[in-house]
Design a protein that fits this description.
alpha/beta; Rossmann fold; 14 helices; 32% helix; binds zinc ion
Length: 459
């Protein structure tokens, strides 16, 4: 008997809202406390009370700074959490930016919807789960740690954070006791990404809680992906169109800049202006420079010798809205802006000015969830609504899938096998993906569990 209880409070039957509770002897530890995102029926779960008493949680271990892993932390604190939040120092910095942005956007949205409801006489919207003030409160509980591999004593557990290779500072979690050990994968990174190093192999463990985002498919190789990307840019610039790239502010935008810089230096694409129109992405560039110890060896060395891997003469970082508007009349340029799924942000202005131009290209380099404008465009809608106006889609639409920050199916299977775990919980995946992954790692002597939301297990 291992004498512990584990319960699943998110990312169990979906990919968002990661939150797992493990209870052993006198210690109650949460791993991640993420926001549910996507469809309305998912987002409504952010308003439901936790099924545990927040004030009794001793520690929260945060695997990385994506909103679907850290986005409910302000709610947890609001509900009485007074423990310690442990994560790497880079994750803390990313989580700060991500949570402040989320708090601000949620409040702005709420105020706009409330005004509209008053005007139309319709029912008032639900107030957001938190605003900026609650985000600021939650920062008091963070206890960031530097680097990977150290044993940190947390109550009845020994905790070790290992490099997950997903985004800067990301970690997978190993919890050890005299009775058993358990590994929580968090999000695991794809190999050969340009900025973050490959994930570490896992230690041997008795229990494993593993993500399955891409449990059903393999990615194209990085080289193939870059060559696809290069081709679209060359063709679009040749016909004097603009290349508009909706990109996530955390790591994808920086990866794209790094790739463009290299392609331009090697003269594989013509010299052309590149505009980064995302204040949040610019902030993440600074975080990356500050925490270069978490980046690939070659980038770390560049920074150490005083070079800037994210700067080149063609790149212009847009500071304010006026500057952003000045791009509208340009042609033959590359524009990177957020949000990555086109459900808000400055990308909407650039789409408004380019989506109807035959010579321009809209290049999608990240996942597009159902219900977003990005998904509508990718799915081939002929007309789309952007900020209240309808536009014909005449630009060429291109989806480049290979820039994933998640492990592909074969790498996941290999990683799981290395743990030699006899009990494997598959989480953080659509039903299809986790069922397929289950088939691939099923074997004698191993129990595989696909937990549903709020289920709990005792061993
Ligand atoms: Zn993630």
């Amino acid at each position: 008997m291992a004498n512990f209880r584990i319960s699943f409070h998110g990312a169990s039957g979906g990919v968002t809202g990661s939150c797992f509770l493990i209870e052993y002897k006198n210690t109650r530890v949460l791993v991640d406390c993420g926001l549910f995102q996507g469809l309305k029926e998912d987002e409504i779960k952010n308003y439901e009370p936790f099924r545990f008493d927040s004030s009794t949680i001793n520690y929260l271990i945060l695997t990385h700074g994506h909103l679907d892993h850290c986005g409910r932390i302000p709610v947890l604190v609001k509900k009485g959490f007074r423990g310690r939040i442990i994560c790497t120092d880079a994750t803390y910095d990313i989580a700060r930016v991500v949570l402040l942005d989320a708090g601000k956007l949620k409040c702005e949205d709420y105020k706009r919807q409330k005004k509209e409801a008053y005007r139309k006489g319709s029912p008032l919207p639900l107030p957001p789960p938190y605003c900026t003030i609650e985000v600021l409160d939650s920062f008091d509980y963070f206890s960031p740690t530097h680097g990977y591999g150290r044993i940190i004593k947390i109550g009845d557990f020994d905790l070790v954070l290992h490099n997950a290779g997903h985004i800067i500072g990301s970690a997978f979690v190993e919890l050890k006791t005299n009775d058993f050990n358990i590994v929580f994968s968090g999000d695991l990174g794809n190999k050969n990404k340009p900025l973050t190093p490959d994930p570490q192999p896992p230690p041997k463990s008795d229990f494993l809680v593993v993500e399955s985002t891409y449990g059903d498919r393999d990615h194209k190789s990085f080289e193939e992906t870059v060559s696809e990307f290069r081709k679209v840019i060359v063709e679009t610039i040749k016909r004097k169109g603009n290349v508009v790239i909706p990109a996530f502010a955390v790591e994808r935008a920086q990866e794209i800049i790094y790739i463009l810089k290299n392609l331009m230096e090697k003269k594989e694409i013509p010299y052309t202006k590149v505009f980064l129109d995302s204040p949040m992405a610019s902030e993440v560039i600074n975080i990356m420079k500050r925490h270069s110890v978490y980046l690939r060896e070659e980038i770390k060395n560049e920074i150490k010798t005083g070079k800037d891997p994210f700067d080149f003469s063609a790149l212009e970082i847009i500071e304010d809205v006026e500057e952003s508007k000045s791009i509208n009349n340009m042609s033959g340029v590359i524009i990177i802006a957020g949000s990555g799924m086109c459900n808000g942000g400055r990308i909407l202005h650039h789409l408004k000015h380019n989506i109807w131009k035959e010579e321009s290209s809209i290049v999608f380099v990240g996942f597009q969830a159902v219900g977003t404008l990005g998904r509508e465009i990718v799915d081939g809608k002929e007309e789309v609504d952007i900020m209240g106006n309808t536009y014909k889609v005449r630009a060429s639409i291109c989806t480049i899938n290979g820039f994933s920050s998640h492990m592909s199916r074969s790498e996941l299977v290999e990683w799981i096998e290395r743990t030699r775990a006899s009990k494997v919980f598959i989480v953080h995946g659509e039903e299809d993906a986790r069922n397929k992954l289950m088939e691939l790692v099923k074997k004698e002597g191993r129990e595989i569990i696909l937990p549903q939301l709020f289920e709990e297990y005792t061993f």
